[in-house]
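Still learning folds. Look over my entry:

…
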Amino acid sequence: MIRAALPEDAAEIAAIWNPIIRNTLVTFTTEEKLEADLASLIAEKSASGQSFLVFEEARKVIGFATYGPFRGGPGYKHTAEHSVILAPSARGRGVGKALMNELERHAKRAEIHQMIAGISSANSQGIQFHKAIGYEQVATLPEVGRKFDQWLDLVLMQKRL
C-alpha cells in the first residue's frame, strides 16, 4: 500500500537508507540519515505540498520516494528532482514503479513539468529502472562525486510529465 510518509516512519526509512549510504556507491553521500532529521524532512515536505511517499507491506515500510526542487530560483519551479529507494526485499517486484507512478501523479498535480533523476553511474540497476519507466539519459557529469576513494560520474535522466 502506498501512502504519505509520517514522521513516525523515520526509523524504518533510515533502516532502508543508511545501509545504502554506508555500503554502496548508489548515493554519493557519506552521512547517514538521523531519525529526527528524517521526521523533520517528512513534516517539511508535507507542509510545503511536496510528496514523500512510502510503500507499506504487512505494516512495514519497504520503500519510499520523494521529490523536491531541482535548483533554486523561480525559473525552475516546474522542475523537480526525485529519490526512490527500496529495501532489498522490495526490489524487482514492481514496488519502485508503483511508487514512481504515484509520485509523478502528485508532481503533475503540483504543476511539475519535468522530473529529474540524478543517478550514480555505478548504479546500473537504477539507470535501467529509470529507462524502463520512461526516463531519458540527458547528460553524464564526469567525476563530480567522490566516495570510497573513487571518482564517480553522475548520470542525469529526465522525464516530461
Summary: The longest strand covers residues 136-147. The radius of gyration is 15 Å. The beta strands are 2-4, 52-57, 60-69, 79-86, 114-120, 136-147, 150-160. The mean pLDDT is 96.
